[in-house]
Amino acid sequence: MKNYRLAFFFFLFLLAIVHIAVGFVQSEPPTEIDLKGKIGVAGTKSLDDPIPIDASTDGQSIFINFLTALGDVTISIYNVNGDLVYQSNEQITSVQQLLVSITNLSSGSYTLVFTNAGGGYVYGIFIK
Fold first, then answer.
1. Does the residue 20 lie in any domain?
2. What is the pLDDT along the chain (128 residues), one digit of tens a residue?
3. Is residue 2 in some structural domain?
4. What's the CA dihedral at 68, 62, 112, 39 to 10 degrees?
5. Burial 58-93 (b: 16+ CB within 10 A, else e)
6. What is the CATH number of the domain that holds 95?
7. Between vectors from CA 108 to CA 124 and to CA 63, what angle results, nearest 5°?
8. Count H helices, E strands: the chain?
9. Residues 6+ apart with CB under 8 A from 79
10. Whole-prediction pTM value?
11. In 3-state terms, what secondary structure has residue 64?
12. Structural domain range at position 120
């Protein structure tokens, strides 16, 4: 009887491992969010292309890479009706990465917006 229990638990353990492994294999790479606009650094003129921010999403999170110091940056997300659904103020003093969870957002189209004290406005549309 103990051998059957041990075999059963071993089978469940293997099944869980296979399920986790399949989940990793099936996960899609993040989709790049096409950003448009200009962002300024305080005390300088607006930076021209390329925009010193990269953003992508996997449908659960937004991955943001700041490629230079931008000072105080406000990150906002608006739904298709123009309602603000997320906002965060960040101090970007160097190259850094941020992760924004979007698991609480409903499926649909959203606009990601970056603004800063240097007069910058960068935006991109993504679908969750």
1. no
2. 566 565 544 444 444 454 454 455 456 789 999 999 998 765 555 555 589 999 999 999 999 999 999 999 999 999 999 999 999 999 999 999 999 999 999 999 999 999 998 789 999 999 99
3. no
4. 0
5. ebeebbbebeeebbebebbbbbeeeeeebeeebebe
6. 2.60.40.3080
7. 45
8. 1, 10
9. 85, 105, 108, 109, 110
10. 0.74
11. strand
12. 31-127
Q: How many domains does the chain have?
A: 1
Do the beta carbons of residue 26 and residue 20 sit within 8 Å?
no
Q: Which phi and psi angles does 25 have, rounded to 5°?
A: -70, -40
- Contact in structure between 57 and 128 (CB atoms under 8 Å): yes
Residue 95 forms part of a structural domain: yes
CA atoms of 115 and 121, how far apart (whole Å): 5
